[in-house]
Write a structure and sequence with these properties.
Layout: E1 2-14, H1 29-46, E2 50-56, H2 59-80, H3 92-97, E3 106-110, E4 124-129, E5 138-152, E6 158-178, E7 181-189, H4 216-246, E8 251-256, H5 264-270, H6 295-307, E9 310-312, H7 313-321, E10 329-331, E11 334-336, E12 339-344, E13 356-364, E14 387-394
Parallel strand pairs: 1-2, 7-8
Antiparallel strand pairs: 1-14, 2-4, 3-4, 5-6, 6-7, 8-12, 9-12, 10-11, 13-14
Helix pairs in contact: 1-2, 4-5
């Protein structure tokens, strides 16, 4: 039996000092030092075996954060963990308190294909693994074939199509060996809810960006564009997940979904929830009013739907612990979870064929401050996301 932890950490714009990432936005050396120290302390507290990072502009600052976390961890171990000469050295409490350094861990970084020059930077994602990788991690951003989504109007006429050729941010896929198993991990950062406003040719800015001449309809259309893109990216991720599931591989998906669990984009990734009883449902090819699926077909359909579903670590924990609220984002008075860890049926506690399961779920969100608060102290330097950690156990022989 192997126990491991897997986490998602949106670091909020990690880049070195004096580097303009968005227009007029950069860190002074003092601000960067504060941010690096804060991030390394969070990483130390998480002490996760696998971490998916979002909003990484360059690899070097991330490696610096990891190195500082290792230094802090070594100092904490020296101060708090008794050496082997102490008769109580093997107590479980000290094993849990000990920090395991990332000295031999593997790091994969996926830069953003949309990255530009100063003021026009676009962040990528990364995966840190104490278990290394089974094979080279893969980056999914440039689509081999454009994704075209055709529409039909309500009168069944051609309703046009929506096409994407590239994702707004990369999806990083890594196969990670854990306890004799290999788990496929996807780290993603889907398109945000910030509106997309096309800039007319020759114009200095999009009309919708002019808040003095506020255009509510235009800004709503920008939100619609962003939502379409986010859902299209969710489908691309879903297709990659299905490929792994159909190959029989256990899957975990983590990252910043920029939507809550029950949003359409999140449900695209996780898959459908099976209907309670398909024998109640009229058949797709019904010729009479009472043509319904049989009991045998009900079982077949349910099994097929369940085989490709992903399950929320947060919701499994809420069910297990009776906790009623977990949040990873707070802005404008809205507290919600937009950072998620999903897992295939291989880790579901009710699945008889499971190879592992989640024992606990942690969220570090005490640093989050409502963005509407006038004195929110961490808004620029700390992450504006909570960090989530799933505490897992997995069997070496495929059983637990």
């Amino acid at each position: 039996m192997t126990r491991f932890t897997i986490a998602s950490f949106n670091v909020k714009n990690l880049i070195a000092a004096d580097q303009e990432y968005y227009r007029f936005e950069k860190y002074t050396p003092e601000e960067y030092a504060w941010k690096e120290a804060w991030l390394s302390e969070q990483l130390l507290t998480m002490n996760a075996d696998i971490v998916g990072f979002q909003e990484i502009f360059d690899e070097a600052p991330l490696r610096a954060v990891i190195a500082e976390a290792d230094a802090l961890g070594a100092a904490a171990n020296e101060a708090n963990i008794p050496d082997r000469t102490k008769r109580y050295a093997r107590k479980a409490i000290f094993r849990k308190l000990a920090f395991t350094p990332y000295t031999d861990a593997a790091l994969a970084f996926a830069p953003n294909a949309n990255d530009g020059g100063p003021g026009e930077r676009r962040p990528g994602v990364a995966i840190l693994s104490r278990f290394g990788f089974a094979g080279a991690p893969e980056v999914l951003q440039e689509l081999d074939e454009p994704l075209t989504i055709p529409f039909r109007d309500l009168d069944n006429s051609d309703g046009g199509a929506y096409t994407i050729k590239r994702l707004s941010r990369p999806i990083l896929k890594a196969r990670i060996p854990v306890g004799g198993q290999v788990v496929t991990v996807f780290n993603c950062h889907l398109k945000s809810k910030l509106g997309e406003f096309p800039r007319p040719a020759g114009a200095a800015f999009a009309p919708e960006a002019d808040l003095v001449n506020y255009d509510p309809a235009g800004r709503a259309m920008g939100a619609l564009r962003a939502g379409l893109r986010r859902m299209a990216e969710a489908w691309v991720l879903r297709a990659a997940v299905l490929e792994e599931l159909e190959a029989g591989n256990p899957v975990m998906v983590l990252g910043d979904f920029n939507d809550s669990e029950h949003a359409v984009s999140s449900e695209i990734i996780s898959g459908e929830i099976p209907f309670k009883n398909y024998a109640w449902m009229r058949r797709h090819d019904a010729e009479r009013a009472n043509d319904r699926y049989s009991d045998e077909e009900n079982e077949l359909i349910t099994a097929k739907v369940e085989a490709t579903r992903l399950h929320s670590a947060e919701k499994l924990f809420v069910r297990k612990s009776l906790r009623d609220m977990v949040y990873t984002s707070a802005f404008g008075g809205v507290f919600e979870s937009i950072d998620q860890i999903l897992m295939s049926r291989h880790f579901h506690p009710d699945d008889d064929t499971r190879i592992g399961e989640m024992e606990y779920f942690s969220v570090l969100n005490d640093h989050l401050t409502d963005g509407s608060h006038p004195e929110a102290p961490y808004n620029k330097l700390a992450s504006d996301h909570g960090q989530i950690i799933a505490h897992m156990r997995i069997g070496a022989d495929g059983k637990i």
